[in-house]
Design a protein that fits this description.
Blueprint: H1 4-17, H2 22-29, H3 34-41
Length: 43
């Protein structure tokens, strides 16, 4: 079974790989600060 956080990480990674702007990914994931997005992406 895949955890929700793993699915979010895969989604964000895919968006980064296809060139989506960080701000768009941040908004889609519901993060208030870019630091949270960077932290999530390092997991």
């Amino acid at each position: 079974m895949i955890a929700l956080c793993q699915l979010r990480h895969c989604y964000a990674t895919h968006l980064l790989n296809i060139g989506a702007p960080h701000e768009v990914i941040q908004c889609l994931l519901g993060h208030d600060a870019i630091a949270l997005l960077i932290f999530d992406n390092r997991k």
